[in-house]
Amino acid sequence: MFEIDPFLYYTVILTVAATVSAFLAQVVRLPAILTHIVAGVVIGPYVLGLVADQSVIKHLGEFGIILLLFFIGMEISLRDIAEHWRIIIMSTLFHAVLVIGTVALFGSVLDWPVGRSVLLGMVVSLSSTAVLLRYLEEHDMLGTKLGREVSGILIMQDLMVIPMLLTITILGSNRDPGALVAQTVLSLVALGVVVGLTQLAIHTTRRLHIVERISHIVHDAEAGLLMGITLCFGFAFVTSALDLSPGLGAFIAGLVYANLNMPDKIRKRILPFKIFFLALFFMSIGLLVNIPFLLDALPIVLFLVFLVLGLNTLIRMVYFRMLGESWQYSLHASSLLAHVGEFGFFIASAGYAAGMITTYAYELTVIMIAVSILLSPLWIRAFARFAP
Question: Which one of 155, 175, 223, 239 is most buried, counting C-beta atoms within 10 A?
Fold first, then answer.
């Protein structure tokens, strides 16, 4: 018998699963993200067992997060956030503070450590950018007032992941808090210097018209695509070396790359990478779902999911009403943002690695996130009747 290269084996399994999942999404008319999670469950260690190596699952999720943050950094418009700061920034902060406070209050009753309460509050406060942007796109809502405001809140939530990761680093460390804060500040300063030098190089190339001179080469030699991927993993490596999250570096790389003003043709070449690695990332969430654990804890999971959906809807609805929006608009917009998103999985993983939550709490959180995403279309549809 000949031996099969494990890398080739996992590549074939994952790509076949992603392809079948994409076709299934078209047949059942659901977002592909949902079918990718289900595909991950099916090929995972608790159903077919085609992908059972935990190290592969772990690295797949980390790899997907790095690329996901890079693509999000590319799409963020800081100017739009500044122009609509009241609804975007204040809504996100208002929601995060109230959710974390509510979970902390609940945790104090159960005698949880402060770090665990803060971590779980962070997880609950984040919605899914990938799910909602696809939903708004499919329903031609991106250009509407609701679409612009929801998109802005999603982008601000993505930005909130960065300080959340830094908070986890501080709370989850056993080292002296003062020394850790000082190291974090120094690391951020060093990262700022790297970003500043990169921006200076970009400004210099623009002033000397170097980008225009090499644009023809970029189109023909795929240099623009490779430049983006190099920036992504290069900045991820820098932040990792500075003892910060590699996802932070990938996100900054996306912002830098967006400022290069590369031709649209180059940006379109990156889109297939985004589709593929998003599929891998959401399958990695499905791979982590422990089916025996889910069956045993199903009543608890469903209770927590609907509690979270209700809490997020209520808090956001109150803020929209405070801004003078109608009840119908407030309820519809809040229901769109109610579910827990993919970055909740990332925050939970970081907290688990830092020892802030137990294995039981981590598995319960991962399953809750997956079920929340799977139920999000039903929750949105239930409140769509209130749309003005």
Answer: 239
